Amino acid sequence: MNLKHSKQRDCIMEFLSTRKDHPTADTVYMNVRQTFPNISLGTVYRNLTLLADIGEIARIRVGDGVDHFDADTSPHYHFICKECGSVIDLDMEDMAYINETAGKHFDGCIEGHFTYFYGKCGNCFTKS
Amino acid sequence: MNLKHSKQRDCIMEFLSTRKDHPTADTVYMNVRQTFPNISLGTVYRNLTLLADIGEIARIRVGDGVDHFDADTSPHYHFICKECGSVIDLDMEDMAYINETAGKHFDGCIEGHFTYFYGKCGNCFTKS
DNA sequence: ACTAATATCAGTAATAGTTACTAGTTTTAA
DNA sequence: TTAAAACTAGTAACTATTACTGATATTAGT
User: With a 7 Å cutoff on the CB, does A6 touch strand C?
Assistant: First the structure.
C-alpha cells in the first residue's frame, strides 16, 4: 500500500489531534467541512480507516453502535458516560495481568482484552 | 408494559436457552423458522430487545458490529476468537475491584465495566 | 519541467444490521 | 363472550459504513 500525500487526510489527522473526546466519523466530517466544504463523507471514512490501519489513530468501539476515533494511540482505558454518552480517557495503569486471570481455566490463547468503564461523568454526576 | 404470552417469544427464549455460543439475531431467526416458518425477522428483533429489557436475556456487544444474545444473565466474561469469531464464556471470578482502580483519578462515578478478552480459541490454537 | 502511473477525490449507490410502521391476529382480564 | 391491548407478518425506513465511478491530485522517473 503506497501512500500519497493528501490535504484532506492531513486535515482529518490534524483535527483529530486537537480533540480528546474521541469524535465519530460524522463529527470529523462536520468539522473538516469548515476547511474542505466539498469533502465527501466517504473520504472521511476511507481516511479514518486507512489511518487506523497504519496505526496513526485508534478506532474505539464502546458498544453504542458508532465508531469513535482517537489520535492518542498509546494504550489507555476509556470511560463512557451513561447520561451524555461522552467518551473520556482514564488515567490508570495497564491491567495486562487480568489476561492471566482469564486464562487460568481456558484452553485457548488469550492475547489481550478490551475494557471500558461506565457510569456518570463529573459533569452529569454533579448535575444529578 | 403489560406482557402477553406469545408462542414466538417462547420459542425464541427456548432456543436461546439451548445455546452457549451467544447467537446473533439472524442465527435465532434461522433456527426459530424451523418451528415458525413465517416468523418475521422484525419479530425476532423485537422479542430479543424486549427480553433483554426485562432482563431475561443479555445483549452482548463485542465490537464485531453485530449484537449477540445470551440466555445466561449471570455476570460473566467473554472471550472472542480472532480467527473464527466465536464468543465463549470464561470461567473466572468477577473483577469488580478494577472499578476502583479506574476511579482513583476520576471525578465522576464509575458504576461498572465491560470487558472481553480476545486471542485464539482452543480449536483455532491447536490448528495453527 | 513533463509525463505516466496510480493514489486519491467527490458524489453517489449499495450494503448490513436494526428499528419503525401498518393492518390484521392472539391473548387475556372482566 | 367480548373488547382492549399486546402481539404478529410483512414491509418500509433508518443509520452507520463500505463500494463503485469517472475525474483530479500527487509523485517517481525521465
Answer: yes
